[in-house]
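Field: sequence (string)
Field: structure_tokens (string)

Example rows 1 and 2, in order.
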Amino acid sequence: MFIQSESNRIIKEINSLRLKKNREKLGLFIAEGERLVKEAEGHIAYTLASQGYKGDIEPDYTADDRLYGKISDTINPQGILAVCRMRASEFTGEKKNSLYIALENIQDPGNMGTIIRTADAAGADGIFLSKGCVDIYNPKTVRSTMGSLFHIPIYRNTDICKLLENIEAVSIAAHLKGDKTPYETDMTKGTVIIIGNEANGITDQLAEKADALVKIPMPGKAESMNASVAAAIMIYEAVRQRM
């Protein structure tokens, strides 16, 4: 089907998905670009391509280039997007020697996407997100996951304090008041790595629930570290120990 009008229901629906409230209401989100569309296989409601798209994906709908340019959220659009169904991940219990990541109040879409991608690369068993985290279906977050959003279980709106009370895995939180480094901390058995808000770290309530607080060495002059970098250091220390 070829679309030329902005009043077409498909175009109106795609435009509506820029807002979180509409994404939640419809249970849909946008994945734009060839790589993301291919990674989203099995989660796609429909695809839309620009008239000038030259790739190998056969779209459900085609829009003229002018119209596609208006609805695209990327600076250099590849001419293809998918409207995807949100994944329904339900935590049914921890795995043996599991590795989980718990994120409290992460606000930056780029940080969120990078952490998801890193956890996926490390073979983590899942990611828990507090209610205060940025929406993982935000277009910027989706792009920065580079498709990992479709690979790893992500449990949204989690009460992380309650989670820690109900699992056997050891919880290890990155914290400026940590008395050990990640390199001195055993992460070979079931482990939950906790990363907090970019500006404030984890809340005092969560710090009290964690089994261990660890501090990444910073011999330079910086007072803090990017949340996604801190997460990557801790996640890959767990990988190193397990290898």
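Row 2 begins here:
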Amino acid sequence: MNRVDWQLWRKFWAIARPYWLSTERRGALTLLILLIVLSISVSGLNITISYVGRLFQNALVEKKPDDYNKSLATV
């Protein structure tokens, strides 16, 4: 079930190879690195938003308006 379909990879590489080995490869690598950096940044931002939301939710559930206001002021 966890087999690698080598025939599929060969077909993929046959299509992708001319592009990745062309004169445009520097731009392609730059865009790929940018895509990876932006994806990691978005994940980090989602984690931060999750923690902030947790602070608000906990303050509301525990009925602590002072904690809620303090969390609101720090955001």
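free_text_note (row 2): The two ends are 47 Å apart (CA to CA).
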